């Protein structure tokens, strides 16, 4: 079972992190496993068991078990854990659980009515005192818009984690975008899934290397030509073709459709010389000095003299 930790309030309100079994440290120190910039006090130690049980402790807190989908307050911050694959309530519903604990059983005597009234008054006062510190959670979307630099840093961390070196993060006004190139369609889908799950305020607009290569090959429709990705947004088309002029024209037509992530397209296409072209089907071939010999399936023998440069 994979458990998930969610931050419901504070600077990182809305952040989510899957927790594999093991021990983690959480705090504001850069050396902690899980860093929360506005974490109050000393670091928290979190231990996740194989069966999904999670316990926490610190220098000032005894070891205590988290209860799934029951938020826990640490000063102005509220954390919650649960099964990553489960249907989670939204953040507001989770915070309501913290503010509105289950009511006690119905009283049977007037004395219990008095006690219930007193407890209700205390809970109301506690909720009133807690509400100001929980406001960031109810306004988590607004907070994310007010702090785009936080989203930028989180998106950069995600790209580093996934190993997408040719993708980058850009900030346009209050919008945060992931742009650039990723190797395959599967990589693009994995990136979008991670962003949708953990950073829903970030937009993804990446080009896929394999798709660009496939587009060029389909456009050329010439197996004699080679299409390659050279790196850093540079693609190349090379080879010798019977239809070199047509190929160059098709590349010019498709170039503007490839998008800005394709920084350069190097084209080296030469016209195939008919005198040295090998038949499409042949049983044997021999190249010796400047003599080119080919025998086709019908028994016809083709012998041509190559130009000195071609023979070399």
TrEMBL record:
Keyword line: Kinase, Transferase
Domain of life assignment: Bacteria
GO molecular function, one term: kinase activity
UniProt xrefs under InterPro entries: HrpD5-like
Stated name of the protein: HrpD5
Lineage of source species: Bacteria, Pseudomonadati, Pseudomonadota, Gammaproteobacteria, Lysobacterales
């Amino acid at each position: 079972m994979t458990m998930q930790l969610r931050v419901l309030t504070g600077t990182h309100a809305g952040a989510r992190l899957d927790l594999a079994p093991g021990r983690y440290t959480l705090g504001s120190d850069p050396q902690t496993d899980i860093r929360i910039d506005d974490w109050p006090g000393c670091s928290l130690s979190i231990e996740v068991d194989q069966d999904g049980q999670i316990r926490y402790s610190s220098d000032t807190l005894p070891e205590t078990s988290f209860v799934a989908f029951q938020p826990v307050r640490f000063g102005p911050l509220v954390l919650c854990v649960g099964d990553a694959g489960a249907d989670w309530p939204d953040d507001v519903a989770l915070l309501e659980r913290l503010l509105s604990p289950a009511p006690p059983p119905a009283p049977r005597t007037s004395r219990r009515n008095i006690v219930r009234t007193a407890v209700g008054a205390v809970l109301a006062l506690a909720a009133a005192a807690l509400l100001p510190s929980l406001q960031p959670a109810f306004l988590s979307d607004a907070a994310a818009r007010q702090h785009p630099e936080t989203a930028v840093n989180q998106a950069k961390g995600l790209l580093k984690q996934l190993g997408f070196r040719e993708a980058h993060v850009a900030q346009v006004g209050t919008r945060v975008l992931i742009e650039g190139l990723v190797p395959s369609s599967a990589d693009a889908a994995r990136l979008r899934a991670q962003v949708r799950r953990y950073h829903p305020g970030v937009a993804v607009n990446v080009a896929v290397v394999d798709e660009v290569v496939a587009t060029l090959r389909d456009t050329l429709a010439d197996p004699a030509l080679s299409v390659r990705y050279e790196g850093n947004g540079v693609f190349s088309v090379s080879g010798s073709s019977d239809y070199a002029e047509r190929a160059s024209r098709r590349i010019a037509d498709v170039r503007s459709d490839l998008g800005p992530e394709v920084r350069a397209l190097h084209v080296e296409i030469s016209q195939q010389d008919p005198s040295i072209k090998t038949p499409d089907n042949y049983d044997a071939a021999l190249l010796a000095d400047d003599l080119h010999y080919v025998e086709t399936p019908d028994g016809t023998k083709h012998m041509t003299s190559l130009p000195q440069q071609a023979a070399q």
